[in-house]
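Format notes (please read before filing issues)

Several people have asked whether sequences and structure tokens are stored in separate files. They are not. Every record keeps both together, in the order shown below: the sequence lines, then the token lines. Line labels are part of the format and must not be stripped during preprocessing.
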Amino acid sequence: NFKFPAPQAKFFKNSDSDNDCDTSNHQTSAQLSTGSQHQKTPKQKLPLPNELLERFQAPNQVMDNPNEHGGRIRSFPHQRNSWATLVYIPLQTNLARLYAMLKEELNSVGISVEVIPEPHLSLSKTLVIPYHWIDTLVETLGNNLRHLNRLTIKFNSIEIFCNEEKTRSFIALGANSCKTSLTSIVQAVDKSAQEFKLPTYYEEPNFHASIAWCLQDKTATLKPLLTKLDNIFTQFKLTSDESFHVVTHIHMKTGNKFYSFPLT
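Then the structure lines:
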């Protein structure tokens, strides 16, 4: 799942010399000219500060602490000059009441979930590109999307997913009722990705917008609850028009940069 917006990563430079930082312990002995030899007690070196140790990490390595973002683990490590990129449709809908209804049901069976504050429907995998590709990719994507028509997404079900790394599970709104229109957009995005030899989207995409998540693979626990969760969503739809979403633009996020492509 993709975070919006993502903070810029902090990189640390590594020295080219292997001798700049040596934290191993060395024992030394001294001979005293007193007629007998005495071995001097080895001096214990003080540990280096963390700030100094971090400076001598591998060149492209960035420290990542899952505790700083709810226990979530990166799908891929930070690398110098690599920009995580996603093509998506943001949902400009108010789902607070639906989320509260779902959370109440899940809490009653001992499952704790976190809300996704800016839900979106993905149209690409997370792509990793160098900075100097950004402008060309934006131009290519715009050219491939400009002939596509606006559409209305109708969310018709609650679905459960787990990410490929099995580190998080998601509760999502299914959007396969407009699969034909969304597939046309994905084909345009895939065409752009192929020009840069980037991964294309899934062959049989299951279009959805995740609205909540929990740590680890909880699909075996969540899927038996689908009927109850679907009933809650049905109640929500009867009193709200937030299950529909009009799409006039396709969006792309790369690092901390955002781009928007109008549909006709």
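For reference, the curators noted about this record: Confidence is low (pLDDT under 50) at residues 5-37, 51-59. The first strand starts at residue 82 and ends at 90.
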